[in-house]
């Protein structure tokens, strides 16, 4: 885990897909897009090691071939990456046809600021990955299960994190 440089996990929304095997069906996973959280790295490694999963990673950033190779080395039967912004439905439509039974959704953006100082673009940037991304993934992929990752910030957030708290509360 700690061998993955911080820069390689920033600006990602990652989706993981596990095909038949120890898991009953495919798994998808959407991960943080602006902040460097390691929950997605741990989950991807867990699915690779414990389930020999076929993994599909999606994100807005560029592919990280070294991380994909690490997943394969750790046991993933396959690992591939697609550049997709889950806040855009037309982009998520590219996933139509993927066999996805479960989505682990942990995408999120944090931009601190007082409500009175934030404009519509600020709101869209913070709410989009969790709220709009959730809606698009659900509507396009129709998974049997949808597991969301939220933050305690939805209950006891820091000053200036109102939009982030709202996005997490939605999930």
Notable features of this structure?
globular; two-stranded parallel sheet; 171 residues; 3-stranded parallel β-sheet; single chain; 7 helices; alpha/beta; 5 strands
Could you explain how this protein is built, in words?
The protein is α/β, with parallel strands linked by helices. The protein has 7 helices and 5 strands. The strands form 2 sheets. A 3-stranded parallel β-sheet has the order 1-4-5, covered by helices on one side. A two-stranded parallel ribbon has the order 2-3. β4 (102-105), α5 and β5 form a beta-alpha-beta unit. α5 packs parallel to α7.
**Which of globular, elongated, flat, extended, rod-shaped describes the shape?**
globular
Q: Report the span from N to C terminus.
A: 27 Å
- Which spans have pLDDT < 50 for at least 5 consecutive residues? 1-37
Average residue pLDDT = 75
What is the gist of this entry?
By secondary structure, the chain is of the alpha/beta class. It contains seven helices and five strands, in the order αβαβαβαβαβαα. The two termini are 27 Å apart.
Itemize the secondary structure elements and their pairings.
Layout: H1 6-9, E1 27-30, H2 39-51, E2 54-59, H3 65-73, E3 78-83, H4 89-92, E4 102-105, H5 120-141, E5 145-148, H6 153-156, H7 162-170
Parallel strand pairs: 1-4, 2-3, 4-5
């Amino acid at each position: 885990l700690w061998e993955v440089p911080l820069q390689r996990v920033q600006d990602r929304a990652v989706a993981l897909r596990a095909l038949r095997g120890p898991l009953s069906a495919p798994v998808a996973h959407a991960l943080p897009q602006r902040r460097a959280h390691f929950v997605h790295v741990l989950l991807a490694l867990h699915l690779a090691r414990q389930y020999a999963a076929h993994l599909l990673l999606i994100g807005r950033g560029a592919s990280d071939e070294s991380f994909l190779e690490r997943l394969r080395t750790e046991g993933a039967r396959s690992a591939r990456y697609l550049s997709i912004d889950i806040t855009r439905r037309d982009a998520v439509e590219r996933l139509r046809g993927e066999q996805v039974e479960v989505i682990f959704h942990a995408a999120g953006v944090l931009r601190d600021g007082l409500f009175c100082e934030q404009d519509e673009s600020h709101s869209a940037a913070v709410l989009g990955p969790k709220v709009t991304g959730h809606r698009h993934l659900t509507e396009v992929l129709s998974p049997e299960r949808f597991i969301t990752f939220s933050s305690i910030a939805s209950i006891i957030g820091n000053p200036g994190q109102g939009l982030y708290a709202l996005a997490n509360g939605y999930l």
